[in-house]
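Priority: low. Protein: Bifunctional protein FolD. Input follows.
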Amino acid sequence: MVAQLLDGKAVGARIRAGLADRVRALPFRPGLRVVRVGDDPASVVYVRSKDRAAKEAGYDSETILLPEDVAESALLETIARLNADPAVDGILVQLPLPKHIDAQKVLEAVDPAKDVDGFHPVNAGRLAAGLPGLVPCTPKGVMHLLAEAGVKLSGARAVVLGRSAIVGRPMAALLLAADATVTMLHSRSRDIAAECRRAEVLVAAVGRANMVQGDWIAPGAVVIDVGINRKADGKLTGDVDFEAAKEHAGWITPVPGGVGPMTIACLLENTLEAALARRAHVPLEPNGGVAETHATPEQSYGHGPGLA
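Result:
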């Protein structure tokens, strides 16, 4: 068995093309502002890609550059100004921030209605409760990829390796909303390899190069590699040993070209949804609109008393 590739680059391009068509039909241009502090090399590349994709799709996009030594108060003032600007629909503060800045305070300063990263506690809480809100871009992109592969999540055994607030926890929430049976693994989990072997869907988001070995993969499993790690030779690799895993998996994402392009596509998707909610009173969907297509509500126990 050799796994089929889940081509995030191609799927992301289709999503962005569809968003561009929708934007052309609007009487306004969705406004996206990315705030970057300092010149972290990875952040420079990511922000450039986001800005280019937004402009190609017809968005009003601008990157606000602040020096590495900017005072936390000045950064908060910038966010307050963007919160109050009616032309701005989405605000993204590029992470990581310098050590002298409290990143959580900064993320909480963003208006939840403009929080297109989906990191504000209000949006995190609404996701946990299955309520309408803005969903983190990477987990949302993973759900789009699973739909592309035709994966039936209802009842499926899903394992999420990593419990970060940015990927692992929201990923588990979306899978659970799609009626998957979800196990979350982390640094204190016992026998991680055995737990991974039980997964029909495995999402690796732990930040350790090639941690997931080929024999950790159940035959035919769907493997989503969120990790982006730079090797000594400068090449990128994921959290999964791709060459070994592809001999076991049914579907697998490459690194690069898998989840990364989907994150950018979903940033634009979130920005359009935020713009429509603010300007046209189009309500946001529960779970970012990406979980219900996988679920089978007529058979689900998940929304009432008793076995939930």
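Residues 259-279 form the longest helix (21 residues). The CA atoms of residues 123 and 133 lie 6 Å apart.
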